[in-house]
Amino acid sequence: MTGPATLDIADLGARIPDGAHLAIAPDYSGCAMAVIRTLLRRRIRGLRLVAVPTAGFQADMLIGAGCVAEIEAAAVSLGEYGPAGRFNAALRAGRIIMRDATCPAIHAGLQAAEKGIPFMPLRGIIGSDLVAQRPDWKLMDNPYAPQSRDPILLVPAITPEIALFHAPAADRNGNVFIGVRRELMLMAHAARRTLVSVERIVDTDFLADEARAGATIPALYVEAIAQAPRGSDPVGLFGAYGANEAALGAYAQASRDDGAFAAWLAGVDADVSQTVLA
Fold it and tell me: Which of these CATH numbers, 3.40.1080.10, 3.30.1330.10, 3.40.50.2300, 3.30.565.10, describes 5-102+158-259?
């Protein structure tokens, strides 16, 4: 069996077309920032983002650059750095569609896709105003308790066209080590295609190692890999390096103003992002 293709970052990003239904990782997980910068420079258009389950810097940058048509997320925020300025501005101006969800609902939808079933039942959202805003979520009575009022919410499967994330390592066979970040495993299982940037590619077999196999996405779920040292800068990568707080704070400030964001994006366009973000 042929393993995933090994590409450079530009070619990996080129596999994401305009209009793609794209699942992205939260800021605390594996953000493929090096790939995101290629999408920003390309001015990809019409992305339908799925945050797994929340979105931060990746989504805000793409929204600010006009790359996003809609986003499904439990939250969009820059966390301790404040509001997601470009997301908030686009939402107020009606430039994007926001599909409000919750963390359990997004995970449930992805789990349905992972299992190859059309929906997943949930209870915790019942009674909230959110249900009325999602006509694709369906309430029904529990068929196993027909004599009692026992409503169940059905969340449809979420099947992204592409899952994109950054991970610590891949092995020579294309298996990807993700540690404890199970949302990355879920993304790869649910999506039709998975693109991964990694810190390094090592000459070993993670699946042959009892200590690593359970924390590894098998190569059969991965379409292509690109090696990108520090590919999660400036957000940081679990177990590898921390966030560049100065760079994230500067971006958060720029995101709150049209002109300041345009200047930030011009730096990315000029391919001086390491200077702009450092």
Answer: 3.40.1080.10
